[in-house]
Amino acid sequence: MRADKPPVHFYRYLYDTIGRNHVWVNRKRLSDAALAIIIQHEEVEIYVLYCGGVPAGYFELDFRAMPRVELSFLGVMPEHIGKGLGRFLLGEAIALAWGRHPNRLIVQTCTLDHPRALPLYQRFGFSPCGQEEVELEELD
């Protein structure tokens, strides 16, 4: 289900719960106002997967740099990992992104993401195009 202009607190719940075990920190550093500018932008689309009436995962597509689209975030709630929902979400994200006719769809992943993330992206046709080493700073 598309979350149209989601409230910041709801987005933070999704981001924090899914990203906690994978050191998702970039969005945590943003103020509520700065985060709202991104997630409520008309060219940023956030979709939430519900199972049993509760959020089970989400993905975020960023169309602001068309004709390039970025799959900014994709994740599954910890209690739903291993049920094939990541594969389902990725398929939906790709279909929605290509439906807007970009010339490129990108995704970034790292060694801190789920160990099955990179192989899953590759099975869906993504290929690595770069690698960098980054040092994360602790949050206050």
Task: Tell me what the structure shows.
By secondary structure, this protein is an alpha+beta fold. It has 4 helices and 4 strands. It has helices spanning 8-19, 32-39, 85-98, 117-123, and strands at residues 44-51, 54-62, 68-76, 104-107. Strands 1-2-3-4 form a 4-stranded mixed beta sheet, with helices on both faces. β3 (68-76), α3 and β4 (104-107) form a beta-alpha-beta unit. It is globular. The mean pLDDT is 90.
Give a brief description.
With 140 residues, this protein is of the alpha+beta class.
Give the C-alpha Rg. Answer: 15 Å
Helix content: 25-40%
End-to-end Cα distance, whole Å, is 34 Å
Low-confidence stretches: none
Supply the helix-strand structural class.
alpha+beta
If you average the pLDDT, what whole number results?
A: 90
Going across the biggest sheet, name each strand in turn: 1-2-3-4
Q: Describe the main β-sheet briefly.
A: 4 strands, mixed
According to DSSP, the number of beta strands is 4
- Per the principal axes of the C-alpha atoms, what is the gross shape? globular
Distinct helical segment count: 4
Multimeric status of the protein: single chain
Classify the beta-strand content into a percent band: 15-25%
Following the backbone from N to C, one meets helices and strands in this order, namely HHEEEHEH
